[in-house]
Every structure is written in C-alpha cells, then in structure tokens.
Amino acid sequence: MARVYNWQIRRQMSYWYPENRPQKQFAAVFDINKCIACQTCTLACKTTWTSGKGQEYMLWNNVESKPYGFYPLMWDSKLLGMLGPQAWNKETFAGRTIFEAAPAGERVLGWRPAEFDYAYPNVGEDDCAGTVEHGVSLHGPHMLWFYYLARICNHCTYPACLASCPRASIYKRPEDGIVLLDQGRCRGYRECTKACPYKKVFFNPLTGTSEKCIACYPKIEQGIQPQCFVNCIGKIRLAGWISTPEKAREDNPIDYLVHVKKVALPLFPQFGLEPNVYYIPPVHAPAKFLQQMFGPGVQAAIDAYRSAAQDEKLAGLLGLFGSTERVVPRFAQEKDWVTAREEDGKEILRVPLREPIYIREAFDKKYQVVRTNCP
Ligand code: SF4
Ligand code: SF4
Questions:
Q1: Domain count, the chain
Q2: Which of 12, 120, 161, 189 has the fewest CB atoms found within 10 Å of its own CB?
C-alpha cells in the first residue's frame, strides 16, 4: 500500500498504487434541486452504449429516489453498515476509508451484488421519508421529503475498481482522468463489481467480462459533453475539468462551484476514492441525512445555493448548465451576461442573467378568449 493525499477528506490515506494524478481530470457538477427524474439521461446512455444482449440490467447512468431508492439494491446502505462509524473532525475524516478497512488479504472493503439486486432499478421511486397520513395534503407545511440522485461512474482519482483488478485491466487515462476497462484483458473475476462502492462496474454474463461508463470519451475528445449531459431535460449537469484545491481557478466553472463557492460536494467522500462527480445538495432534505452522503460541508453548500439570487456570478454560472453541448473550461460574468468560454478565452455562447418577463392580457381580443397566466 502507498500513502497518497486525498483533499476531499483532508488527509493522507492508504491506496494500492502511488499518487499519479492525470494532466487534466474530467469532472461534473449535478444540481440535485433541478432533477425531475424523467430518466432521459438513463435512456440516452442506454440507447447509446448498453442496448446489446447481456446488458439488459446494465445502467451506466441511473436516477434513484432517496432515501428508499437504490440501484443495485442497498448499494450504499450495505457498505455504510460494513464500514462502521464515519466521524469527521471538522473537515478531516477521522474514520477509515474502504481501502484502510479492507480485510486481511484484500485490497478494498466491498461486497458483490447478486443478480437479483439489479432486478428493480426503480425501487423506491417517489417514496417519501415518512408516512403520509390521511388528509395531510389539506394542511401544510408537509415535512416529508425525497430527492432524486442521478448517478454515473465518478471517474475517481483513487478508483477502487482499478485497485482491485488482479489483471490490471482497468486504467485511468493520463490525458483526462477517465477510467476505462480493457475488455481484452478482463477475465471476469468480478473483483471490480465487488470493490466499486458506487456499484458502477457491471458484469456482462454473455461476454463474461465487466463493463463500465466511459464518460462518452469519443465526445469528450471533441470537446462535447457526454450523452447523459446534453440530453438532460432538467439542465442539471455541467461537465468540465477540476483542479486540486491549491490550483483552483475562479474562471473554471467546476473549480468555482467546488473550491471557491463550495456549493457542490462529492458523493460519500468518506469512502476515500476522491470521486469527481459533485452534487449541489437538495435544499429541502434534512442536513443530518445529507451530511452522511455528502460530508461536513452540506449546510454551507445549502446556504450558498440559497443566496444565489443575491450572487450574480453564481446565479449566472448556474444559468450556463444545459445551455451548450460544448464542455465549458472557462466562464465570465459581465454586467447582465454570463459567457461560456473555451480554454483560450474564445466565447462559446452567452446567456442573460435575467430573462425578460412578458405578461399577456388575460382577455385576448383578437381570438375572443380568456387566458390564464401563470405567475
Ligand atoms: S435527464 Fe436530467 S432531469 Fe431527467 S432524470 Fe436525468 S438528470 Fe434528472
Ligand atoms: S465510481 Fe466505481 S467504477 Fe467508477 S472509477 Fe470509481 S470505483 Fe471505478
């Protein structure tokens, strides 16, 4: 085991290989508050990459309802139970990561889902935390909650799938940090499906090899965002590049959301993988539940997001989500506009900070009809 630095848990930790960061790291921010669970992302991925035989229950992208949705069944709660207490000392993780908690003779603490666990991808959909009593809909406020969690492979800095593979079939590309699986080398031992805590490697029983999300790398190489991003109806997703905290740039959208505003947080940072998909947490769910999922920065992230209406730069950047197919390496907010820019500063597009509002006359004289205006 090597000693490596994981900035998400603010400490050194043990990992199977020495620290070897890519030249650039692919990363994404998902705004949970905007997801409507339409599953367009799921189908955009499925029809592009996993519509073949043996891939029927393979969802490289899935969207589950928390707290009761899981794909595969119990993927997170089972490992959380195995890992034991996960205390934080302010921003430093004081417990053990899944690499440090590995049983003797194993590289990672993990578990392998059974076939049955993949059979119900929409279990718990729209189930809220708590019981809806008869008649409660007539009286507010309602303290019941649920939220949608869209998930892809996190293209982790310290991938557990890669660490666990006895064939060295899984590798992290030095040019963009995307984690790929070489099916020519894979012999189907399924150590990766056991090790990945997010359960984002899948076994194909017909080919006898594992498969995983490839971050649509042929598109990324052209500077275009992946399928699940450009097809997102809720415009919740933004793809880009993340720096380590000491190299963060204010004009890099991902750096700004993660390092500067700290409004986007990693999923289960305590597992120790330094995952590179970041989430703006839902503002309506209990902070205690969210802290276990996104770490100690949850309340500050929610406060920053709630104040976006008074923060033009943050509000402008949130308006860029879903506005272009291009990956946006840079952005700038100038007066009433926010611009997406290429690495060299060339403008990709601009969106207004405030959309104009048009109020129609309730009575349309031309067509002699009464219309209802939505506020
Ligand atoms: S397409 Fe976007 S809004 Fe729809 S479920 Fe996926 S992430 Fe959510
Ligand atoms: S999310 Fe899982 S499959 Fe993806 S890189 Fe991390 S450990 Fe590997």
A1: 1
A2: 12
Pocket of ligand 2 (CB under 6 A): 153-156, 159-161, 179, 196, 198, 200-201, 212, 273
Is 196 inside any structural domain? yes
Give a yes or no: residue 58 inside a domain: yes
Q: Is 288's pLDDT higher than 70? A: yes
Tokens coding 365: 């004289």
Give the domain range for residue 183: 2-130+143-245
- What residue spans of the chain are helical by DSSP H? 40-49, 75-83, 160-164, 191-195, 217-220, 227-230, 253-255, 287-294, 298-306, 312-320
pTM of the model: 0.95
CATH number for the domain harbouring residue 77? 3.30.70.20
State pLDDT tens for residues 80-125. 999 999 999 999 999 999 999 999 999 999 999 999 999 999 999 9
Residues of the chain with pLDDT > 90: what percent?
Answer: 90
Tell me if 80 is assigned to some domain: yes
